[in-house]
Amino acid sequence: MKTRSLVTSLLLALALLLPAGFAFSQDRGADIKDAQNLLKSNPTFNNRLRLATLEYLQGTDALKANDMSGAVSSMQSAVATLDAGKGQVPESHPVYEVSRYGLAYALVQAGKPGDALTVLDELAKASPDFGKARYLLGATLLDVPGEQNQARAVEVMAKLAQDGQAPYKDWAAHAATRIAY
């Protein structure tokens, strides 16, 4: 859905821009420290989103630099920041979805598909319409040994092919067909 991705992009931009008095430097570590201090003194929704977004961006920087342990650590921090605000940030919030997906992706890239499955299962329950996460769940199930994981991968991909959105719907249909044979 184009609307969902547009809303996600706008919310991420807002989270970065709020509060307006902060300028961003190249050193995300300093920005994260400032955001942590601000959240301690003023634990609002916007401050929590800002800190989680900065931690997520630090994780994406680490992924780009092929620093998988740094990526996992930063993504875990982003999710933990959002988890600490239970009730303040709903699990279906786009920043929550993106942070959990980022953590799962970083775990897969770090060679920890079993840990990624836990995160992806939680994400699939909280946001069943998030096709990208459902596709990664099916693909990750294939990396974890065991016949039941293979069968579940086919089930996840077939369900996504049946009721998902493009392009994940098409990818899932192709994957489900190839896995089943």
Using DSSP, what is the number of strands? 0
The largest pleated sheet is described as: none
Taking pLDDT < 50 over at least 5 consecutive residues as the criterion, the unreliable ranges are 14-25
Q: What class do helices, strands and sheet pairing give?
A: mainly alpha
Q: Figure out the total of helices.
A: 9
Helix content: over 70%
Q: What is the chain-wise order of helices and strands?
A: HHHHHHHHH
Can you tell me the overall shape? elongated
Beta-strand level of the residues, as a percent range? under 5%
Report the C-alpha radius of gyration, rounded. 17 Å
> What is the CA–CA distance across the termini?
31 Å
Question: Mean pLDDT, nearest integer?
Answer: 82
What can you see in these coordinates?
By secondary structure, the protein is mainly α. Helices cover 77% and strands 0% of the residues. The protein is built from 9 helices and no strands. α2 runs antiparallel to α3 (45-64) and α6 packs antiparallel against α7. The longest helix has 20 residues, at 45-64. It is elongated, with a radius of gyration of 17 Å. The model is unreliable at 14-25 (pLDDT under 50).
